[in-house]
Amino acid sequence: MIFHVVPLDDWLLAPDRPYSPRVLAEDGFIPCTADEQHALAVADTRFRAAVGPVMALMIDEQRLDARVRWEPAPLIYGRVNRSAVAGMLEVRRDAEGRALALALWS
Predict the structure, then answer these.
(1) What is the side-by-side strand order in the sheet with 67-70?
(2) Res 95: pLDDT
(3) Are strands 67-70 and 54-59 parallel, antiparallel or unpaired?
(4) What CATH number is attached to the domain comprising 6?
(5) Structural domain total, the chain
(6) In sequence order, which residues have a C-beta less than 8 Å from that of residue 106 and are 6 or more positions away?
(7) What is the per-residue pLDDT for 28?
(8) Is residue 34 within 8 Å of 51, Cβ to Cβ?
(9) Cβ neighbours, 10 Å, residue 52
(10) Residues near 26 by beta carbon (within 8 Å), at least 6 away in sequence
(11) What is the pTM of this model?
C-alpha cells in the first residue's frame, strides 16, 4: 500500500475518469509515500493552507495500471485507476492547518 495526499475537492473533480492531478502533467509522475507517517508529514508541509478536507489515498500497487518506481519514495508514472484506491484516510488538522493525525474516511 502506498499513499498519495490530495485535497478532497481535487480527488472528486472527475470521478468517472482515472485520477490525473496537475502534478502528473507538470512533473510526469504522482508523488506518493510509503507509509502513513510520511503521508502526514506531506500533508503538514504541502497542504497546511488547503481549504476543505485533505485526504491520504490508500493505493494498492497490485491493482494499479500505471507503473510505480521507488526513487526512494514511490512515484506513479501515469494516471491512477480509481479501482486501485483501496480507501482514504482523512488528515485531521488543527485550526492553523497543521496535520495532527490520519483517520478512516467513511
Answers:
(1) 30-31, 74-77, 67-70
(2) 94
(3) unpaired
(4) 3.20.170.20
(5) 1
(6) none
(7) 97
(8) no
(9) 9
(10) none
(11) 0.95
Q: d(Cα 10, Cα 75) in Å, to the nearest integer?
A: 18
* Chain segment 23-77, per-residue pLDDT in tens: 999 999 999 999 999 999 999 999 999 999 999 999 999 999 999 999 999 999 9
The answer to whether residue 106 scores a pLDDT higher than 80 is: no
Helix (H) or strand (E) holding 101: strand 99-104
Owning domain of residue 30: 2-104
DSSP 79: -
| Coil vs helix vs strand at 6 | strand
When comparing pLDDT for 42 and 106, which is higher? 42
**Rounded to 5°, angle at Cα 8 from 5 and 10:** 85
Helix (H) or strand (E) holding 23: helix 22-27
Residue 17: phi and psi, rounded to 5, are -125, 160
Length of the chain: 106
